[in-house]
Amino acid sequence: MHTHHKAKQLRSQKAGNESHRRQWLTVRTSRAGISMILVMFALSMSLVLTYSFIQTQSVLTQVTENGSRRDLAMNAARAGMTDALNRLNSLEWTGVNDQYQRTFFSDSDGDSTYSISFETIGDSIGSVLELKVHSLGAWTSAANSNMRSEYLITAKMRLVPRLAGRSILPGDAAEATDQTANSGDFDQIRQYALFAETGSSSLILDPCDRIDGNIWLYDNLVLYEDPAWSSSVREEFLEDVGKRFVSIPAGSSSLSEATVSYPHPIAGSVTYYDYPSSSSRRDLSDLKLHWSTTNNRLRIPSSDFSAFSSYRLYEGGPLYQAVSLNSSLYNVTLKPTAANPLGIFYRSGSLNVYDNVVIQGTLVATSKITFHGKGIHVTSFNWKGADGGSLVRDADRWPRLPTVVADDIEFIRETQTTLEGAVVCQGDVSGAGGSVDYANVSNITYTGTATATSIEQPYSTVTLQEYRLLDLISANGKYAIWLETTGTGQTGATGSWYPITGVDSAHQQVTVRGEIDIASPTGYEIKRHKQELTQIRGPICAETFNFNRLDEWVLSSSYWYDRKQKWDYDNNLRRYFGYSELGFSEWLENPYNFTGWGSYYQSYGLSLEPTLHIQHLKDQEYRWEPPLFQPFDGGETTPELSGYRWSLIDWKETQ
Fold first, then answer.
1. What is the dihedral of CA 509, 514, 516, 520, to 10 degrees?
2. What is the pTM of this model?
3. Cβ count within 10 A of residue 327
């Protein structure tokens, strides 16, 4: 039993060991599989990481290459912009159509270049002097032209022309100017209020014509010959005008130092090319006018009308087209636009201008312009906006084109016309005169002091310094304000009429049609406006001038003899009673001396109050024709100042 039991235990133990061994082998086999899997996973991860590393290195290499190409394109664009801006400020720049391409860098891998172009903006009048400069830098592979990298730089620039009278800053010089040179003798001609190039009777003036400023005449000045008065009556009148309106400073005997007051017919010196006749010299002496002769024969340059029909604002700038006109203008306001920034309005042929025409710009006709209507106002563009603020830097210094350019000009007697700016006529100027015809409104007169500020051309705001009941004044141009000014040279105290087009009683202001700036209070007078009046505020040139007189001055010789006899009689009475004598011209102004005459004489007498008034009181820079600007050529003396001057106002880079 015992033996059997022991053997049984041995078999049992053996069987257990076998089972344990099998289990161990199973576990061992399982562990080996896991190890293999781990090894395979590790190998797989290693391959993935290796591939990722290789791929990352490839991407990094590509990024580096792309960055290098981009840098080559960017550097080319920047070099191109530097080149373009240098070119823009030099005589090499050929204008807004200038385009070119240059190589910046080249090697076996490829070429980097820059392409330059210029783009005008011109979406408003204020931006017509601006342009965009584009510099496109590019790198192109030598092996594959489709492999390309680009970089764009755009600079926004504004032309800042060097103007006469500007402040000279470092890097600038007074002799540098971007203003276009005027043709022929125009720079000398425009210094005169009136320039008459030819004619045996270069200038014909009659009563109620007035010129503020110096005049240049080829030949004789014909004065006050339309009235049918005798030579003695005429001489008496001229002598009285000279005594009454000309004053010479104490201690001086020279007429060149005299002050000539309004409304003397000529407030300035007279320069003759031909020696004046004896009768002209006597008239000049009676009127106490200073005169001289010159050997310098000045001539009006020939007008190239095509320079106005299509034009450039600056040489190299974009081309603009003038607005074409029909044969007549009526009830219209014309202003500059971005497409016509100088406001040139052009007629091929003759032009008739009728009522209510307001032009801000330049009126051009290749033949004759006739001014017929009322409420006409033409003024050359002054580069100011609606609030009077400058659209450009130093707008007051900017040169202007003439206000009117024509072959002949006529002012119908009954017209009411104001021209502000230079007037250029290749032929003859005639007409004006009219009569003293006032608007049919209440006869109101206000006086005091006022200041004036120009706003949107051609209007200004006048501020009264003393309270006045302005609600009584209509704002339709039937009332006008006379603003006193002081001219240069011999002009002395003078002034001009400005029709009132707006009334602000609360602020004691009136809006007037006309450009005027007066900072310190000056004298004014508000009255009914003359309905027949021609005013030219700027220099005028033509071959000859023949201005009319008021019809009321054309009296028979017997009537003039009667007037002089009555004047002599009144002065005898004044002497008898111890009163000072009256001059003939002053006596004629008094309506009470025309008792029994017509209503006109009993209302106004015979006054020299002008119905034609030419004034040249401001030395404005006028250009003969477009363009206004051209690049300065400094030559060998100041080559660094050559070209235009541009200001950077924006910079943009695009990858």
1. -30
2. 0.87
3. 11
